[in-house]
Amino acid sequence: MNIQTQPQPRTLTSVSCQEESHYWFYLEPYTYAALQEDHLLLYNTLNGTSIEVTDNPVVTDLMKRVTDRKNMLTLSLSQADLDNEPIGTFVREIRRRFMGDIIDARMLGGKPIQIPSDAKIMKALEKQPEGKIDHQGLKIVQNLTGLTLYLNDSSAGLESFREDAYKQFSAPCSGLPGQTVQQLNIDHLLPFLEEARYGMLDHIKILGGNIFEYPHLGELVEVLNRTFPGVVDKDYYIRYTQLAGLGSVDLEFLKGNGTENFLDIIVDFPIQRELWEHCLQILAEVSVRSRFHFVIESEKQFKQAEQLIDDHRFRVYTYEPYYNKKNLGFFQEAVFSDREEIFDARPSMRKIQARSLVNPLRHGQLYVMSNGHIHAGMNEPKIGKLNQDSLHQYLYNAVTSSKSWNQRRCDVNPCRQCVFQSLCPPISGYENTLGRYNLCHIK
Amino acid sequence: MLDSVIFETERGNAYLHSPHMKQLLLLHPVLVFLFQLRKQGIAPDVWYHQLEGEGVVLDGGHFTTREDLRYYVNKYKYLEAQGYFQPVDSDAVLSGRLEADDIEFQLANCRQLTFEVTEACNLNCHYCGYGKFYNRSTVRDRKKMNWGQARRFLDYAARYWNSNVNTSHNKNIDISFYGGEPLLNFSLIKQVTEYANSLEMKHNHFTFSMTNNGTMLDKYMDFLAEHKFMLHISLDGDEFQNGYRVFHDGSPSFKKIIENVEALKKKHPHYFEEYVHFITVLHNKNSVADVMRYFKDKYNKQALILELNTNQIQPERAEEFRQTYKNFRESLENSDQYCEIRRDFFPQTPEVRTTNLFLRAYSGNAYDHLHQLLHLDGKVQYIPTATCLPFGRRIYITAGGSILPCERIDYRYALGTVDQEAVHLDFEAVARRYNSYYDKLRHLCGKCYKTGDCGHCLFYLPGIDEDAKARCPGCAGPDHFSRIISQPMTALEESPEIYSMFMEDVNIT
Lengths: 443, 509
Hints:
heterodimer; A: 9-stranded mixed sheet; 3-stranded antiparallel sheet; B: alpha/beta; 10-stranded mixed sheet; 19 helices
């Protein structure tokens, strides 16, 4: 293509008056468009800018047509369309944010296209009925990315701990008072772990009860280090009150060569000072990689946790908000997202694609309880029991029927009517516990 | 390093292919101009600030105002900052290597086990892959596989299939019988079928398939129907079109085949409808249109149409081969009934298939598995060429006991053997061998823009087995690549419904 500078160029008017102009209007493939009745959201996945339009039927109708798959993000607009004020302003905004453009049709040879950014899984198993899964290349064990093992449901050291916290985040789980402590059957667990070796595991979380009361802990640690060396994190969870009852020698196993072992310490409030100090003393005596997880139920506890983090210069920690059925106000204040936070997270097109297909936060996670029950999510019924079937079968059950793995915001109210549904984080355990799916200030 | 390229469709619309961003973008003509300026070493914003006058007239006589130019200079800089013009280090992307564990994994998860039950054939087809046109390293002397070899390999493979290394669930493994004409060794087919069905499988079940010439179906159709063999009958169309498929005395096979097919259809109508398919070889006695019509009208089926293999042609037979050979796309496009055929068989047309492959490779939105979308952002390492991983698709056992990854490659590439004593397969050695091929090809493939949808098997590349450098006929520089991807983009402009078909119907294995 050659160009020449024009000392005295023709004006645009003199060119366009020869025939009525029309333009190809298009969206860029990196622009995510969501449309719900009279609400339109355009989001530039490259730089996080957005346009929201409400109650403007002319614009929403235009976007319905542009995003219709057969139009491939491209539509013809006349000069008159562009002179129409809602459309003109809208198109100018889109251009200003590089979300799309218009091209004078005379500059092109015919209707162009853009390839929409809809994800396509070439070897999809999901939702194929039983008996129809003779799908070449189907390697179901590779869906396994995370494993949580509850070794026992001992309540020692868990007195006063929140009994259903484990349904909301990684937390110890105690049995019912007065009942015999249930220990995970090691003979059933080991073959299961051997099968899991061929998954795509990123981490294994080991919790109790009290993992240090598990009679086979040494054997299990040895098997985990041997079977999952290198990049698979092994995260051993313990409440600080339980840790305080140990000696530094008990933690030596975390220092295995070539392993990725972490000690994850659950801290809840009010702090039991003496035990807390003892816990810190043990950690000071033994050099293990540790992380603190502060269970927060109120603004006051949040401040207390911040104080502890400052006092002890903790570098690796998380806050774990806990819904105790009485603190919805705290959740609304501290946990609920607003527009700004959603955009600040800058979800990529890839994340949006993933959220439109499954629940990426929970997809791939299996939980083995101390009674051998296997769950794909902590808030849903078991999908199998150790020693009864193969890991392959459990994973097939999870892929095809787990609400936890497959639950998207477009499946639940009120999110299914919200244009932010694929920008928001995936549905969490909190939402299942609360029984509401919009931990946000949007709707 | 692979740079971004701009290509034009037949309509003259320009698009950017960015390997770094894995995306295709429609480009405004001014952006095309700025991109070309940048390639000449002129920064678009510098050019803009030095511009005199009120605007420019681009090629084609379209006036662009100074204000619009400023907009597109800014957009150019925006796209540049996002990485759209950034090259990709193809050497790093193509750095994949195999280890012994990978070979074990592929074997344990294989999709098909093919037994060449006999080298013998009762037909003498003019274009046979083991016939006069081809320069094969092995002599075929009507060897038959024996039951001991077949059973030994089944037992060997079943250990891997039943191990934890097999990560598949309830998936079929297809046991396939190949020849020669496989039905000439029916007793072995029967033994293998019955034995396989007696094996206790943890993760798989067996299905059976066979390609055969149709001349012996009358004797064995009940067995094939009972075991639901996926049957692929070789037939090139009507009597004239099937003229190259003859018995050893030169007599035509057509009537015998049709008699058998009609008998099969009559005796096992449901089986015929569900499990029987036709394979046609394209040559100068038939055409895509003829074949499609013939099978549609006669059996309401669609034949799988294959071109003749163009590799390893005997030089002295090259001219005769050239006259016999017919290209699928040309045959279809030269047909008087092109529009009609295109309408009736649209999803199967080469244009749709090519466009599907293009969308899979270059749209940036197609993922082989969900796992790739969820967890492997930018972490995938590829191996050079489109060569299948050893045993990932198929294990092929020849009648003489050689173990190959495919029936289409020369026997000199055998990876192991099965004999009267045992199976001899060294995973370490297989991995080493493949890695040596990859090392040899990496420099070549690192310069190729078409690695995303390469269609070349390394076992067909000239020089792959020699000390000399390997060569690849498909290696594409940026200009060639631009021309190649222009075609599917043109097809999408003209038939956007292909995109919907891709999203809704297509699965590529």
